[in-house]
Amino acid sequence: MNATTSHFERFLTDGTDDVHYNLRLADGQIISIKAASCAATVDVYLPDEIATPDSDGWQGEDPWEAWLTAGDAPVDGRYFYEVPVADVRKLIEEHGGEHADQSNPTTHCFDQMVADGTGTGRRPMRRIRLADGTVIAIKADAGDGHADVYLPEGIEVPDSDAWEFEERELQLKRLNGDPLIGRLFYEVPEAHVRALIWKRGGEHADQGNFS
């Protein structure tokens, strides 16, 4: 069975009214599409976690557009003009097709942590339960744009230089004193942490009762 691309096909038929529409892929990644009705090419924004496909169709990159449209937020991705429809469809299929849930994942807790900071003291890291049930921990200074991130073993580390500063000596512990098994990363740009949360479905509705 072919991976579904029904939302993308609708973008191609109806167009996107000269604005970008997010498209959530089956593996949780989110790309953005701008298309004119029945056009043979579309404009595509890819997050850094998606490698640029090895195809001539992706040669029209414009880093200035990504920078101009990012505002005060750090740029996390690459912008491509006039990518042939077939190349975009192939990219979607390589990521398993489109996700059944096209609503934007929530990152309210994380957004508040990076905006307000997580505080200092004996336990400066604060926990976030993700939609898939896994729990990460965040330490951030207000408005810094970066965060220290604890990932449990069940979360694969993204293949990106943003996650290169790993703490290998410090052992985190649960509130009851038991050791936590996982990895701690320093100074991860907030856009990359947000992309990881999005990829796992956003934040869980229940953010209480951590053990």
What does this structure look like?
The structure is a single chain. The chain contains 5 helices and 9 strands. The chain has helices at 6-14, 63-69, 85-94, 108-116, 190-199; strands spanning 21-24, 30-34, 41-46, 78-84, 126-129, 135-139, 146-152, 166-167, 182-189. The strands form 2 sheets. A 5-stranded antiparallel beta sheet has the order 5-6-7-9-8. Strands 1-2-3-4 form a 4-stranded antiparallel beta sheet.
Write the topology of this structure.
Layout: H1 6-14, E1 21-24, E2 30-34, E3 41-46, H2 63-69, E4 78-84, H3 85-94, H4 108-116, E5 126-129, E6 135-139, E7 146-152, E8 166-167, E9 182-189, H5 190-199
Antiparallel strand pairs: 1-2, 2-3, 3-4, 5-6, 6-7, 7-9, 8-9
